Amino acid sequence: MIASLFHYYNYWMFIGLMMIGFYAMMAKRNLIKKIIGMNIFQSAIILFFISTSVKGKGASVPILRDAHETHEAATLNIMQYTNPLPHVLMLTAIVVMVATLGVALAVAILIHRRYGTLDENEISLRR
Amino acid sequence: MIQKSDDVIVRTVARSLMPFILIYGLYVVMHGHYSPGGGFQGGVILAAGFVLLTVTQGIERTRQHMSQKTACVISSVGLLIYAGIGALCLILGGRYLDYGRLSQLLQVDQPTARSLGILGVEIGVALGVMAVMCIIFFSIFAADETE
Amino acid sequence: MEVTLLIEATENAFRILEEARSHAAGIMDTTIELMAEEHRIIEEKKVRAIFTGARRRRARFQNFAGTACILFVFWVLLSGHFDLFHLTLGGLCAAFVAYFFHDLLFVNVRVGDIRTVVWRFIRYIPWLLGQILIANMHVAALVLRPKMPIRPRIITFKTKLETDISRVTLANSITLTPGTVTIDIREGEFYVHALSHLVAEELYGGEMEDRVAHIFMEGDHLYVQDVLDASRIYETLGV
Amino acid sequence: MKPLYLITTVIVGALLIYGTLDMPRWGDPHSPASTHVSPYYLQHSLVHTATPNVVTAVLADYRGFDTLGETTVIFTAGMACILLLRRRRKG
Amino acid sequence: MILTFDFILILFLFISAIASITIKDLLSAVIILGAYSFFMCLLWAQMAAVDVAFTEASVSAGIGTVLFIGAVSKTERRSKD
Amino acid sequence: MPAENAVLIIVIPLISAFLVPLIGRWKRHFSYFCTIGALATVSLISTSTLLKTIKEGNIGYHMGGWAPPFGIELAIDPLNAMMLVLVSVISLLVAVYSYRSVDQELSDRMVYFYTLYLLQVTGFAGILITGDLFNLYVFLEIASLSGYALIAVGENGAPLACFRYIIMGTIGASFYLLGVGYIYMVTGSLNMADVHQLLPALYDSKVIAAALAFILTGLGIKMALFPLHIWLPDAYTKAPSASSALIAPLMTKISLYVMIRVLFYVFDISILENLFPISRMMVWAGFAAICGGAIMAMAQTDFKRMLCYILVAEVGYIVGGLGLANAVAFKGAILHMVNDAMMTAGLFTVAGIIMYKIRHRDLSDFKGLFQTMPLTMCAFVACALSIIGIPPTCGFFSKWYLIQGGILAMQWPFVGALIASSLINVFLFFRIMEMGYSFRPSHKRPMAINTTETGINEAPMSMVIPTLGIAASVILMGLYNQVIVNRIIAFAVPMG
User: Fold this and answer.
1) What DSSP string describes A28-83?
2) Among A87, C35, E12, residue whose Cα is nearest residue D59
3) Residue C18 and residue F267: Cα distance in Å, rounded?
4) Do D49 and B114 make contact, defined as CB atoms within 8 angstroms?
């Protein structure tokens, strides 16, 4: 159990962060708070993906050190570089995150223009 | 409406810092091959330069360099560069986004052609991201005024 | 009877004279006004010509070239790739940014000659570094003394500098010097936080302000540095 | 309503933790994620694309279509902001 | 892998995440969210994902926070929860 | 260049979406013609692709020339070729239809509306065509983001409804992404075909169970499966009529398609029995959705809102049909997916026309419409009969397959719910038709001002003709349903 805790703590950390964001998305009544929760939620998912790319001790940034590295040398050195694929995916996910953020904030401003408040309870009263 | 900052130090320093921010953004875009960075990061840094210009010099001054309309055009052009490079590869007889085909056009070997293709794509991405970030920023910050 | 007639005639004559004189004075006044107006218009035209015509174009080109050079040096410092391809890219980028944003680093409307300003600015830097060194020693001495005789205070003084850029240079120079921090500039009034009385004394002396004014060639004042420069010339002339 | 949300959160979290129990342990260099596809990129990116930064090579070339999509996402967000926040001209 | 550094970062992450969703002043919440993004970016840089960390630092901690501040200043600063 | 067709289907709307803001800056109305042109081309290309896949089999297009597990693959089989035709045709018809209502509702922002419209179609096409799990997420986000914007420009309550949709939709997409992450963790691949080969060895792993649960929940939110449907009625009711006519029929169907894709092409058909009682759960979810949707639909007085709840019920049919896990029900589910997209598109366009003419869409506003708007009501009747399931229309055949499948699988509650909801639909639509026939037009209505002597006051032809086209295709698809089932769907059914 202790061993598994040691091996998996990183996954569980991301799950904890994600649940904080998830709870804020559902339970908070202020719309900006919901968007903050959304941001936390999505970046925790990105943290999970990044943690799949880690390769133990000694693995470093996936930028080939020797710009003239031969094919064979690269094959030998695979363990020295972390896994680049999740990084690529998460670059995409970060951009998607900020795009969603922009649209959500625009809609929140639109709501504030119509109802004069951002609180869900007050909006349902003023409808 | 964003007025210009009333602190003369901030205003002047931000103004003279702006070209350096832009050149740093372009550096990040162009050196994505060798160091961390690339179109998105560079584009966002470029956009951050305009954000700095707006919050220090006021929105009127910024409009001389980047207005909502210009940003709209630039974003379309940036994305057209990306999609157009892909389509160019298609026209040259390869698969979509197969930059290796550009080697016939540029008279270089395949890996270099791919590297140049990546550079072109990154420039397109940077233009698009910069313009769109400016659009979002302007629309949110100028939300209560008429155009 | 004649006497009264004579008196009347004299009075009339005087009145006519008076009227003629006032008339003449009026004409003179309007002439002077008109001349002043003309003079002012010519002056204005001259000033506008400075800002719009060939000089402005020249200033713009100087700005563009200066910005491009500085940006290119910055690029080379960042890049670390010295092959032709990357240098060309850097040159293109620098030219691109400089073309669109040449009025940001330097102001387009300017009276003095930019080369002199740059040269004087470069000469200013060693003096500032020396000043910083001295102030460092000073503050270190203050702090290391067991009694720690620091007496923080905010001092204000009115500056005679006029342009934004010179004010900012002065403010940053003050901040760079240990022991003093510029908090705010409001309508020509500097608010500086100083560590002790002695540091403040130096500020009131105003040498730094004079030197900054000298860099940016701000007229109307006689500056210490100008006198020093001139004295050297007179020395060489042997006057 | 709040307890309901809390219960949902706990259930989702528990399901996620249940899923992690069979995963390769953290930082394992021999996990499938690090051995199936990604070594190919590390080996070949320099030969194929002359780009030492593997992330850039994968981003713009091997998975270039993803990046096109992602740029389109950003473009969509920009158009959406204009569409939503633009106000009619007065007069 | 510097384990202590990792733990401290994760601790900060949790603190800032909880703080940003509980604080009632929205502007502070947004700034704390920026700090959260920044800690996240440090954590990723520590996991050797430099590109992603760079992107997060510029996109999420930079522009994202600016957009949030814009939205808060255009709407309202107080929140009831 | 036949293989290039696959990528052109995505690239043409994409490039024209980038061109539309530039052209629209020059002449505003050209954006509309540009949209029409792009969508017409896409319809032609996708039709030819469908014919080609039927004749020659599946197409795999390797993006950038990289072989599948390393690059991104576009995979076309008869099922998604058919969906592509459906999407492109419906979006073309709705685009033609949309001009008048967009001009009325948001004339000054028309350019951006059509840009987002094209991006929406791009997103749909990308979701359908891609063979990569992560690429699917990217296109899902394109479709969702443009959908949010198209919905939020609607009438008064639209931004609030849209905000709920954004929150729910983001949770859904993030759950999908998490599921993909879990799959990637244990397989190391993102290509669907590759994962399909790697997965069977891992079926007893807890990771895969959690991944499947998260993917299905995420897609459930996107397709508005019953307990997760709460965002749908508000959002689609308040949306502008042009965007609701595009998004409402297609978004749910596309999510359903992704679910089919994930369940049967990424996972295996055996997952339905082996992993946990997932098929049982799907049938019950479908049952709950049918009951909930039908009952809520009865309580509505707003026509568009009623349609939204019917949509929820229809999603229930398809999910339940997939859960029945036999060939007949599967055919029925896929056929119903296609049919339902057509008939809901028809009904939403009719709702848009009524909205355009009368500015109201309460059920009471249908009074006397058969006299004033005969063509529109003709289309309405065709689509309504199809929703109810009356023989010559296509809705009957898919329901017939579904009921057969239910009987084969001995799922009596599901069959009962199907029949009951058909009866409820009879009640709902015959009430409207009765109103349309028997009552005189009410006088308080603003449109009754300029009726001609015959009393006909039809909407503009650019709106009516696409609606009639959809109605005609509803009937045609009913008549030729054997062809569709035997030639196309039979290839897609995994259990033969």
Assistant:
1) --BHHHHHHHHHHHHHHHHHHHHHHT--STT-B-SB-SSTT--HHHHHHGGGGB--
2) A87
3) 116
4) yes
Q: What pLDDT does residue F369 have?
A: 77
Instruction: Please state whether beta strands C153-158 and F73-76 pair in parallel, antiparallel, or not at all (unpaired).
Output: unpaired
Q: How confident is the model at residue A38 (pLDDT cuts 50, 70, 90)?
A: very high
Give the strand order in the sheet containing C153-158.
C153-158, C189-194, C180-186
F76 three-state secondary structure: strand
Cβ-Cβ contacts under 8 Å between B and C: the total is 65
* Domain carrying residue F458: 277-496
Q: What is the per-residue pLDDT for A67?
A: 57
* Rounded average pLDDT over B59-75: 87
Give the whole-angstrom CA distance, residue B42 versus residue F286.
48
In whole angstroms, how large is the CA radius of gyration of chain F?
A: 22
Cβ distance of E66 and B143 shorter than 8 Å: no
Q: What is the pLDDT of residue A116?
A: 86
- Where does chain C have alpha helices with state H? 2-52, 54-79, 84-105, 114-144, 164-176, 197-205, 207-215, 224-237
Domain boundaries, chain C: 2-105, 114-237
**pLDDT band with cut points at 50, 70 and 90 for residue D67:** very high
> Average per-residue pLDDT in chain C?
79
Q: What are phi and psi of F361, to 5 degrees?
A: -145, 35
pLDDT (0 to 100) of residue F263: 87
Q: Is the pLDDT of residue A103 over 90?
A: yes
Do chains C and E meet with 3 or more Cβ pairs nearer than 8 Å?
A: no
The predicted-structure confidence for B32-41, as pLDDT tens digits, reads as follows: 888 888 889 9
Q: Helix, strand, or coil here: C181?
A: strand
Model confidence at E58: pLDDT above 60: yes
Measured between alpha carbons, how far is F296 from F316 in angstroms, rounded to an integer?
14
All domains of chain A, ordered by start, with CATH?
A: 10-126 (1.10.287.3510)
* pLDDT tens-digit readout, C63-80: 788 888 888 998 888 888
Answer yes or no: is D19 within a domain: no
Neighbours of F212 (CB within 10 A): 23
Closest Cβ opposite residue B35 in set A63, A91, A95: A63
Tokens of C83: 């092959």
Among candidate residues A110, F444, C81, the one with its CA nearest the CA of residue B34: C81
Per-residue b or e along B28-58, where b marks 16 or more CB atoms closer than 10 Å to that residue's CB: bbbbbbbbbbbbbbbbbbbbbbbbbbbbbbb
Domain ranges in chain E are: 2-73
How far is it, in rounded angstroms, from Cα F30 to Cα A19? 48
C158 to chain B, closest Cα gap in Å: 15
Query: Is the pLDDT confidence value at D91 over 50?
Result: no
Cβ contact, residue pair F135, D73, below 8 Å: no
Look at residue F128 and tell me if it is in a domain.
no
Q: Examine the pLDDT at A29 and tell me if it is beyond 60.
A: yes
ipTM for this prediction: 0.88
Considering the domain boundaries, does residue D4 fall inside one?
Answer: no
Q: What percent of chain F has pLDDT over 70?
A: 94
Q: Is residue F226 part of a domain?
A: no
3-state secondary structure C105-164: HCCCCCCCCHHHHHHHHHHHHHHHHHHHHHHHHHHHHHHHCCCCCCCCEEEEEECCCCCH
pTM: 0.89
Alpha helices in F359-393 (DSSP H): 369-372, 374-388
